[in-house]
Amino acid sequence: MKKIIIILGCACLLLFFLIIESDYFQNAEENETGDTEEFQVIEWLYGEELTEDLEIEEPDYEENLLTEEEVFIGLTGDEIKERFGEPDRIDPTAYSYDWWIYLFEDDSTTYLQVGMHDGEVVTAFVSGHVSETFFSIGGMYEDLDDLFTFSNQVDVKATNGQYQFELSAADLQARPLVEVDGEWVQLYFDTHTNELSSLRMLTADTLVEMRPYSVSYIGDPPERPTVSYEDWQEIEHAEARQIFDYTNVIRARHGLEAYEWEEDVAVVAYGHSREMKEKEFFSHTSPEYGELDQRFERNDIRFRLAGENIAAMYTDGIAAVEGWLNSEGHRVNLLHEEFTHLGVGVFQDYYTQNFMTPWSF
């Protein structure tokens, strides 16, 4: 759903404009199903229990495709620090690992999150020029599909059982799952260009814990850790910063200025995410607080331009950003040339980005 309101009122079939106090609005919403017209609750826990063992096939390409600098899984914290130095910060997650966040001042198009559990890397999110050999960001979908033969059904053997992930057509196009050198890799593509945008490496156990696709199983059903209210507060704050950081990496990649963090706007965004979760709706229009302009005015935020992206039920904030990038309405906000400030609010698995340009006097 996309709403645009600007000073000059005009209307067309897909976009409409309304005059509201000389302000501009652009809203877009997304959940992980790709359904942008209405909210649909998806049961992500697991599908049916399988009755027969899966036949796990070995990859039909050569092993050891990754170079030494592309290997993350299994490295120790000391080995990561030797390569990249101390992390800029360490963020908690809703899973069994913590993120080590790396920002690269000398290359604003590069971003790295390393997931550490019991002193070892169990997952890594990589985007940019961390490695320029095998998984080069910007690699084409067709080339990697020729190498791996992307499939909508992926069988995974983990510690507690065997699991069969079912990828939708949208999953297969935007984030296929492949096995590389005995580990698992999600490839995130920019579907507007068919270029590789980022990748996420995971152990089999971490993949099962996160459940990024519909899954059936033999053995124990996949379960996520229980998270306390206090822990959620820290996780939500961390994911909001990750969404902000990675949004600016994407903007840098497209030659755009970085957004500035706006705390008052982030408070409004958090309130909307929380309200959507607690009141079980998914919309830019709050039943109690109204549209974005009304929420801004209620919090005394003066603005010239404003816009909003919302998302729900992604595995984490980084996945939500990749989802927004692949939806036309969200992409416009992410890559808008006139917005200057951004506030992000996360409440559990609901995500809101509020963009704005303040009045200048």
Automatic annotation (TrEMBL):
<protein>
    <submittedName>
        <fullName>Allergen V5/Tpx-1 related</fullName>
    </submittedName>
</protein>
<dbReference type="InterPro" id="IPR035940">
    <property type="entry name" value="CAP_sf"/>
</dbReference>
<dbReference type="Pfam" id="PF14504">
    <property type="entry name" value="CAP_assoc_N"/>
</dbReference>
<dbReference type="InterPro" id="IPR029410">
    <property type="entry name" value="CAP_assoc"/>
</dbReference>
<dbReference type="InterPro" id="IPR014044">
    <property type="entry name" value="CAP_dom"/>
</dbReference>
<feature type="domain" description="SCP">
    <location>
        <begin position="245"/>
        <end position="354"/>
    </location>
</feature>
<dbReference type="Pfam" id="PF00188">
    <property type="entry name" value="CAP"/>
</dbReference>
<feature type="domain" description="CAP-associated">
    <location>
        <begin position="73"/>
        <end position="213"/>
    </location>
</feature>
